[in-house]
Design a protein that fits this description.
About 40% of the residues lie in helices and about 15% in strands. By secondary structure, it is of the alpha/beta class.
Length: about 550
């Protein structure tokens, strides 16, 4: 700067600046425009009125801003649209001058990776969704899709803003449309931290994973009062649409937390397994857990009575790197277990029959649960490990009338459609249609292993002899029938209830040494690592099933 040149901001010249040393310091006057900006900004950032924030806290809830702070890496959040306001002039809404229109939107980093986040502010008009509120969310979703980063929505809202009429309904429509359009392209996660009522519930239902917190989150299409008026049923909020209801009964909720901080910890853990979009692989994570680690538990499994229940989680824990398993949908359809592990540092999605519950049989809910998870994995380049211990489909009139044919077909469809690497291990038994459905070679399984003791057959030997030899059993003397049954069952199982016939036809690629299961699986996924490059597959959305 020359001596004559004036600083356009302070109005001082370079000569004056130089002379500062010998003169008393001038008080710098903050320009009016900057003052005004800072005031507006501070007011907008403060959120709702103190009494509303106090009411929020009294319910054990964090504020919209605090929630974002829990989720993102410190100092990484950049807000967009803080000063946007409603344009609705009806019912005095505009006069309230709610800056940000009851929702915070922006981008932040989670474990160093970028994510789009919106957080509804219940302290401002109950977090209700007006047109501007919706516009902010849809703009964020569009930007996230362009930037190819996940969207995380924190929902705490009384639903469509009643004062804005159909305009707010349209806003929901715009969100649902984008939830669907971007499904299978970028991961979408919903965290319900307050009410989520009416049609508003359909946005989370369209996203990949729903998190809820006990005592805080409530989701329903019609609330307790409407239910009472319509059906006469009396039900409280928690029973109708609380976290455990949706985790155990409806299957809407994938992850339950005891508190908000616990919920954000779980979200971050889930994010660590996911790629940013369908054009990327999930992040690798180095491990000190040796590929060659032997698992003696797998030998014990071979000695076990095929009808004895056990939790398949134990097998998953022993197989995975550092014994870590993030289970998804833990409380729902417990006869099938799904979730994320790492094998040799690579993320793998697990689908496993669980003999501890309904003998591990497939039913309607298990089919829906597994099929949707498989479709998610396939959308986001995550290879699939299938662990089989399945006696068949769960029998009964309720299942047949409930549509086990239609729902069961979803597993077959999802596996057949999936082009990610698919590795399968038969643990103990695989019978009938369920054997075919569970990522068999016929459904496009790439590498299918079996433990030596596994029974792979059309049906269990006891059931088979009752059909094949019903006449001989009837004609035998009463006291000889059981012995005859046992002899025939042994003959049948010696011939069919083993993996050897299946291995001879190539429907099982290898019968493996049980203790080497981890090593064989890691090697199999390594072998298949180049099967499909990210983004090479046809885009498939993760339709709610
Ligand atoms: C405008 C709303 C609102 C809404 C709440 N508020 N919901 N304002 N539109 N939908 C306002 C309240 O008037 C109140 O304003 C403030 O938010 C806090 O609400 P409270 O009722 O005091 O809180 P609480 O007692 O905790 O009850 C929360 C609630 C209740 C259960 C969510 O507010 C409620 O029932 N709201 C209406 C829910 C509803 O019917 N929504 C429409 C659903 S239909 P003040 O000024 O007092 O602070 C829908 C269709 C979507 O969403 C369809 C998509 C296709």
């Amino acid at each position: 700067m020359s001596d004559l040149m004036e600083d356009p901001i302070s109005g001082t010249s370079a000569a004056q600046e130089a002379g500062k040393k010998s003169h008393p310091k001038k008080v710098r006057v903050v320009p009016e425009s900057l003052k005004k900006f800072r005031e507006i900004q501070a007011l907008a950032e403060a959120g709702g009125p103190p009494e509303k924030i106090a009411a929020q806290k009294a319910k054990g809830k964090l504020t919209a801003k605090e929630r974002i702070a829990y989720l993102v890496d410190e100092g990484s959040f950049q807000e967009l649209g803080l000063l946007m306001e409603t344009r609705c002039t009806d019912f005095g809404v505009k006069d309230k001058h709610i800056k940000g229109d009851g929702v915070i939107t922006g981008f932040g980093r989670i474990n160093g990776r970028l994510a789009a986040i919106f957080s509804e502010d219940f302290t401002q008009m109950g977090g209700s969704l007006g047109r501007t509120h919706a516009d902010k969310i849809t703009k964020l979703m569009d930007m996230a899709a362009d930037a190819r980063v996940p969207v995380i929505g924190i929902l705490d809202s009384g639903g469509a803003r009643i004062q804005e009429g159909v305009d707010s309904l349209d806003g929901y429509g715009e969100i649902f449309y984008r939830n669907t359009k971007y499904s299978g392209i970028i991961p979408q996660i919903s965290i319900i931290l307050g009410p989520c009522a009416g049609g508003a519930v359909y946005s989370p239902a369209l996203t990949d994973f729903v998190f809820m917190v006990k005592g805080i989150s409530h989701m329903f299409v019609t609330g307790p009062e409407v239910v009472k008026a319509a059906t006469g049923e009396e039900v409280d909020f928690e029973t109708l649409g609380g976290a455990m209801t949706h985790a155990t009964k409806s299957g809407v909720c994938h992850f339950v937390a005891n508190s908000e901080p616990d919920c954000f910890r779980q979200v971050k853990e889930l994010m660590s397994f996911l790629p940013q979009n369908r054009f990327e692989l999930p992040p690798l994570q180095a491990t000190k857990d040796a590929d060659e680690r032997k698992i003696s538990l797998m030998e014990r499994l071979c000695e076990m009575d095929p009808r004895k229940p056990y939790r398949v989680h134990h097998v998953v824990w022993w197989l995975s790197d550092d014994h870590k398993f993030l289970e998804v949908h833990h409380n729902y359809a417990k006869n099938i277990v799904v979730g994320f592990i790492r094998l040799g540092g690579r993320v793998v999605g697990v689908v496993a029959n669980n003999p501890a519950h309904m003998a591990g049989a497939l039913d309607i809910n298990a089919s829906d649960k597994a099929a949707r998870f498989i479709r998610f994995l396939n959308s986001f380049n995550i290879p699939i490990l299938t662990l089989i211990d399945v006696p068949g489909y769960w029998p009964g009139v309720a299942q047949e009338h409930g549509g086990i044919i239609r729902h069961g077909a979803k597993i077959l469809y999802a596996y057949s459609e999936a082009t990610v690497a698919k590795v399968t291990l038969v643990l103990r038994k695989a019978y009938g249609g369920a054997y075919i459905a569970m990522s068999s070679k016929l459904m496009g399984g790439d590498i299918n292993f079996s433990l030596p003791s596994a029974e792979i057959a059309v049906m269990g030997s006891r059931g088979a002899v009752e059909i094949l030899y019903s006449r001989q059993i009837k004609e035998a003397k009463e006291e000889e029938r059981d012995a005859l049954r046992a002899k025939l069952a042994k003959e049948y199982s010696d011939k069919f209830a083993s993996p050897y016939q299946t291995a001879s036809t190539g429907s099982i690629d290898e019968i493996i040494e049980p203790a080497q299961s981890r090593t064989r699986l890691i090697n199999a996924f390594r072998l298949l690592a180049g099967k499909r490059r990210p983004g090479e597959n046809e885009h498939t959305g993760n339709i709610p099933l």
